[in-house]
Amino acid sequence: MSNTELNTPNAGGAEAAQAGASDERALRQGRSLVVAVDGPSGSGKSSVSKEVARRLGLAFLDTGAMYRSVAWHCLNGRINLANAAAVEAAARTINMEQTMVPDAELFKVNGINVTDAIREPKISEAVSAVATNLGARAELVRRQRELIDAHGRRIVVEGRDITTVVAPDAEARLILTASEEARLRRRGLQLGGTQTAEQLAEQVLARDAKDSTVVEFHQAADGVYTVDSSDLDFAQTVDAVIAVVRQAVHAGPA
Ligand SMILES: Nc1ncnc2c1ncn2[C@@H]1O[C@H](COP(=O)(O)OP(=O)(O)OP(=O)(O)O)[C@@H](O)[C@H]1O
Ligand SMILES: Nc1ccn([C@H]2C[C@H](O)[C@@H](COP(=O)(O)O)O2)c(=O)n1
């Protein structure tokens, strides 16, 4: 299957809405349903994926939080992020726990609650050192696959390499994207206007540029849908993603 672009919500009308609701019920009851979501920073992957998981009754895995947790551990333990072997060793040895339900966000590293700490700008600025470490990536991919299986393969997983590396066999795979302008604006609002334009550009665009040296998350691979949320509000984006999930499930394996 070639790349598929779907950037408008489900067609309107009462009939379409009814069909949508009944399809959504079917998805809630199905067996394996892995929804893989990739995309650039600030495109809405995490917030939209959480809401999709809620609506479809699925578990939720934020893989970026795992990269952030390794970065936090290195900074906290004075492990030099430029020392590739030490970063890989950290990824292999730390204990990471995360609630995988969309309504309760809690991340722990070696028993320490890092839920808020991993979202701090200093982690956003440092995390690419983990993301571009191929040994650390291999270990985190291994852990992510284990978590998907442990949740009975009924899960929404979001990150940068989920559609291509972690779960290329997912029932629904999509890239969630948005214009640079929309992503910078959303991240600025999310951080309560605390960051300058330069800081936002560093945390969003420069980070994407570094991360995309090791993974492709701007262009959809074959069989992967694209949802462009630049001109959609949050609720419309969630609807558009659920429409893609329905479409992908009906279409079957790519
Ligand atoms: N369609 C949308 N319209 C407006 N705001 C949105 C939309 N989608 C997401 N947002 C908001 O944009 C902000 C960034 O979203 P989110 O953190 O989910 O992005 P992300 O892709 O996971 O980013 P990162 O990869 O950097 O963690 C959040 O405040 C979220 O509520
Ligand atoms: N599957 C993934 C998930 C995340 N990353 C990298 C890219 C980011 O710089 C960092 C944090 O992700 P975020 O919380 O901003 O989504 O982790 C990756 O390379 N692969």
TrEMBL record:
A Pfam family per the record: Cytidylate_kin
Keywords, alphabetical: ATP-binding, Cytoplasm, Kinase, Nucleotide-binding, Transferase
Region Disordered: start-end pairs: 1-22
Catalytic activity: dCMP + ATP = dCDP + ADP; CMP + ATP = CDP + ADP
Residues annotated to bind ATP: 39-47
Database matches in Gene3D superfamilies: P-loop containing nucleotide triphosphate hydrolases
Polar residues compositional bias, start-end: 1-10
Keyword Secreted: no
Residues covered by the Cytidylate kinase domain: 35-246
One term of GO molecular function: kinase activity
Protein name in the entry: Cytidylate kinase
Originating organism: Arthrobacter stackebrandtii
